[in-house]
Amino acid sequence: MSVKASPLLEVTALNVHFGGTSLIPAFAGPTLRAVNGVSLTVMPGETLGLVGESGSGKSTLGRAILRIGDLTSGEILFDGTDMARATVGDLARLRRQTAMIFQDPYGALNPRMRVGEAIAEVLRVHRKVPRDKIGARVAELLNLVGLDEGYARSRPVDLSGGQCQRVGIARALAVEPKLIVADECVAALDVSIQGQIINLLMDLRERIGMAIIFIAHDLAIVRRLCDRVAVMYLGRIVEIGPTEQVFTDPSHPYTASLLRAIPDIDPDKGLPANPLTGEPPSPLALPCGCAFHPRCPKALPQCSTGEPPSLEGVGPHRAACILPPGEITI
Ligand SMILES: Nc1ncnc2c1ncn2[C@@H]1O[C@H](COP(=O)(O)OP(=O)(O)O)[C@@H](O)[C@H]1O
Ligand SMILES: [Mg+2]
Fold first, then answer.
1. CA dihedral 26, 29, 30, 31 (to 10 degrees)
2. CA-based end-to-end distance of the chain
3. Largest CB tally within 10 Å, which of 78, 126, 232, 253?
């Protein structure tokens, strides 16, 4: 797939902090740094995986990028416009050109609305097609996600989880998005349905050329679907790079630990020992230095002091670790 040279999305030093403010300073609680200085780019048509344990800030980052959630500071250039400082007109354009697919396929749909009406609503709000063409476009979108157009008359309660997720994707596609954020969009589905939905997304990506930020727990799916992958830990990206490079040659001990925890395909080998023990520390009280140092099997004394290591660097594959890449094998 050929991609244009300039990024579709360019996020710089993005922070999303919760709490910590009060009219009376003495009553200000601790600040929760859910997203802590994140920078990343997404090229047109590219699929970027976003992985990391629960609570690492993936959903908060995805929501802030689409301006569905608030942000504290930073820059979000979408097609050259800073959406962190968007005007009403800019935000309307962002809504027309982006969409989010959520984990819970039922929760994302209004239970009282028929499927066709739910999709038509998006087409009307964004004035995508003339009124007399809406019915035909709804049928087309249903077909695109592999549902017979007769489903337009169904309500969410009549559908399976997989069918509901297809309707959610059809709704997302109704805006003809340049960027989709898919947040754990197959996690709630059976494995066979997961495969169908992933194949559908891959097929649509080829046909429509949209970029996808694919948030997922399942590293095997990320490996199959994503061009590049970013690994988040406690609000920061600790490693980013082309998917195969990150999977075969992880450069951060956290990534290496996550990969070690994937069950091997070979049944004779049994389950690997999970090197990631315990929970991540609370984002309300981030450890000094590298936030991963208390759990890191490779930590050196200097990892627990000073500033966290930076992700800056040359080349597409970068990690925020002071150890040379050859020394992080876990
Ligand atoms: N609206 C909110 N108010 C306060 N804390 C929040 C809010 N949303 C998320 N958080 C916290 O931010 C951190 C990151 O959460 P989240 O983005 O949901 O992580 P992930 O999607 O990686 O599991 C968590 O500690 C979570 O409890
Ligand atoms: Mg999440």
1. -110
2. 34
3. 253
Q: Which residues surround ligand 2, an ion (CB under 5 A)?
A: 59
Instruction: Summarize pLDDT for 1-54 with one digit per residue, the tens.
Output: 554 579 999 999 999 999 876 666 666 778 999 999 999 999 999 999 999 999
Binding site membership of 9 for ligand 1 (Cβ less than 6 Å): no
Complete DSSP assignment for 130-153: -GGGHHHHHHHHHHHTT--GGGGG
Is residue 37 within 6 Å of ligand 1 at its C-beta?
A: no
CATH of domain 9-327: 3.40.50.300
Domain edges within the chain: 9-327
Distance of CA 52 from the midpoint of ligand 1 (Å): 13
Question: What is the spatial distance between Cα 81 and Cα 312, in angstroms, rounded to a whole number?
Answer: 24
135 lines ligand 1 (CB under 6 A): no
Q: What is the rounded CA–CA span in Å between residue 126 and residue 96?
A: 6
Q: How many whole angstroms separate alpha carbon 11 and alpha carbon 117?
A: 35
b/e per residue 173-191 (b: at least 16 CB within 10 A):
bbbebbbbbbbbbbebbee
Nearest ligand, CA 34: 1
- Counting ligands in written order, the one closest to the CA of 183 is 2
Residue in the structure block whose two tokens are 């754990």: 184
Q: What gap in Å lies between CA 25 and CA 14, rounded to an integer? A: 24
Burial class (CB in 10 A: 0-12, 13-18, 19+), 115: buried
Q: Give the position, in ligand 1's atom list, of the atom nearest the Cα of 69.
A: 1
Indicate which residue's Cα is closest to atom 3 of ligand 1.
18
Beta-bridged to residue 9, according to DSSP, are 42, 78
Ligand 1 atom nearest the C-alpha of 283 is: 25
What's the pLDDT tens digit per position in 35-46?
999 999 999 999
pTM here is 0.92
